[in-house]
Specification:
oxidoreductase; 41% helix; Nitroreductase-like; mainly alpha; Nitroreductase domain-containing protein; Nitroreductase; flavoprotein
Length: 138
């Protein structure tokens, strides 16, 4: 009998140790290929690929299993333009602020600045919202 509030994990599969080693090694190899991206493509991406990625992201563990986040896929050009305008305003304040000189200097070699044209040209923007209030009855 499962503990109160817990559902049994009926589709759990335990792998043999050697297979776990192989799978973990393959996973590490794939993950170490990951890179931070600063140049973005404007090429279209099938929406279902984006949706599958977000479905995967939504399964991430969280405190009390609340998953206090929401994802919104933005494809409308006018909305992307508004997001770009707001983002560039915040970035201008960051780059022009006196208190951030050290940080701006640390970013200099990356060639980044307050201009974010990719926010309009990317096929989709993924906006992540944090939920500050839970779904509990109170």
């Amino acid at each position: 009998m499962p503990e109160k509030g817990f559902l049994p994990l009926t589709d759990y599969r335990e792998y043999p140790v050697e297979e776990m080693k192989q799978r973990s090694s393959e996973f590490y190899t794939e993950m170490k290929r990951r890179r931070t991206v600063r140049q973005f493509s404007y090429r279209p991406v099938p929406r279902d690929i984006i949706e599958n990625c977000l479905c995967t992201a939504s399964t991430a563990p969280s405190g009390a299993n609340m998953q206090p986040w929401s994802f919104v896929i933005v494809s409308d050009y006018a909305v992307k333009r508004q997001i770009r305008s707001a983002a560039e305003k915040v970035e201008r304040e960051f780059y022009e602020g006196d208190s951030t000189r050290t940080w701006v200097k640390a970013l200099d070699h990356l060639g980044t600045d307050q201009n974010k044209p990719f926010l309009e040209t990317a096929p989709y923007l993924i906006v992540i919202f944090s939920q500050l209030h839970g779904f509990l009855p109170d």
